[in-house]
Every structure is written in structure tokens, then in C-alpha cells.
Amino acid sequence: MADKIKIDIVSDVVCPWCTIGYKRLDKAISEMGIQDQVEIEWQPFELNPHMPKEGQNVQEHITEKYGSSLEEQKRSQEYMAEAGAELGFTFDYFDEMRMANTFEAHILLEYAKAFGKQTELKMRLTTAFFSERKDVSDRAILKQALLDVGLNAEEALANLDNDESRYEIRSKEDYWKNLGVNSVPTIVFIRKSAVTGAQPVDVFKRILTEVLEQ
């Protein structure tokens, strides 16, 4: 068989559009029946690299970062909840929701890659954050997510205090930023073409068809 279509998804665990974008891409792949021809790798991007350990109230954070009013935020959250529901994903927004630091989650996603569990862990973490009201910077939550997808939690968590593992994530983040990635999701096809944002399923089908024809 020919080489697989390599798809890099630059994203963050706490990015709603990254979840919607991936789910739409996955739907396109499934409907085209090309699951065996595609290889997905998740690349790290922190929306809030300076987020303190205790996090920040999401409403405060969005107002501070984007200047959005509470009404605008509510409308946006409703829209995302509808988009998620269409794809079988639950966005459970609530007033006390807190934005989390995701650096350690990215270290674990890199660890999961060697075991073919990256996508599974990514979706487990994003579900924990958006659907289950959990803090994905809390090591107890991270440990449970690792166990849920069948990974060696103790071995994985040891990477969190490993300078080499931390440096690797910083380097990867810098690599994608230096290529001009400044918003997520950015979905890169065979390292040649990229789209940003949660594109419709039909757009992904068109891109995948073009890539297959190359």
C-alpha cells in the first residue's frame, strides 16, 4: 500500500474548535472509508501558556483576552454546544468553569504517541474538560485519563518532571509557531497544505480527495 496520508493537528486540549474540527475531519474520513489510509499526529499548542496553576474563570478569561461580553460568550457557547451535539460531543459550559494550564497534558500526549494512543488520550482529556467539568492540569485527573485509555500512568507521569520531556514540548511548540501557526486548530496535510479552524465535513472531504489524487 502507498504511504499513509499524514495529518498533523496543531491544537490545544481546552480548545473547543479543535474538538469540533477533529470530529468533522474524523467524520469525513469515516464517510470516505479511508481510515486505514490516514495517520493523525497531534502537535502541541498552548492557547494560554502563562495560565497559572489555579487557572482562571473562563468568563473572566475570555473577557480579558478577547473583549467578549457575557452575552456574546453565551451565544458562542450555545453555538459550540449545538455543533458538538451534531457530532456526538457534549460541551457543558457553566459559570464557574475555569481555564486550565495544559502544558503537562501536552507532555502526556507526546508520551501516548509511542503507544498509538494519542488520539484516544486527546479525546479523553478534552472530554474530561468540556463534558465532565474536570481540571486537566490536575495530576490526579491526568493519571485517571491515562488509566482510562490503558496507558502506564506511573511511567507517563514521570515525564512531567523530566527536563528532556518538557524541552521537547517547548521545541515542538516553537517549531509550529515559527512556521506561522498562531491559531488552532491548524490541520496540516502531508506537511504541504494547511487549513485553520473547524472546517465543514465537505471541505475536509474535498481536501482529502485532492491529497489522495496526488
From TrEMBL:
<keyword id="KW-0413">Isomerase</keyword>
<dbReference type="InterPro" id="IPR036249">
    <property type="entry name" value="Thioredoxin-like_sf"/>
</dbReference>
<dbReference type="GO" id="GO:0016491">
    <property type="term" value="F:oxidoreductase activity"/>
</dbReference>
<dbReference type="Pfam" id="PF01323">
    <property type="entry name" value="DSBA"/>
</dbReference>
<protein>
    <submittedName>
        <fullName>Predicted dithiol-disulfide isomerase, DsbA family</fullName>
    </submittedName>
</protein>
<dbReference type="InterPro" id="IPR001853">
    <property type="entry name" value="DSBA-like_thioredoxin_dom"/>
</dbReference>
<feature type="domain" description="DSBA-like thioredoxin">
    <location>
        <begin position="7"/>
        <end position="208"/>
    </location>
</feature>
<dbReference type="GO" id="GO:0016853">
    <property type="term" value="F:isomerase activity"/>
</dbReference>
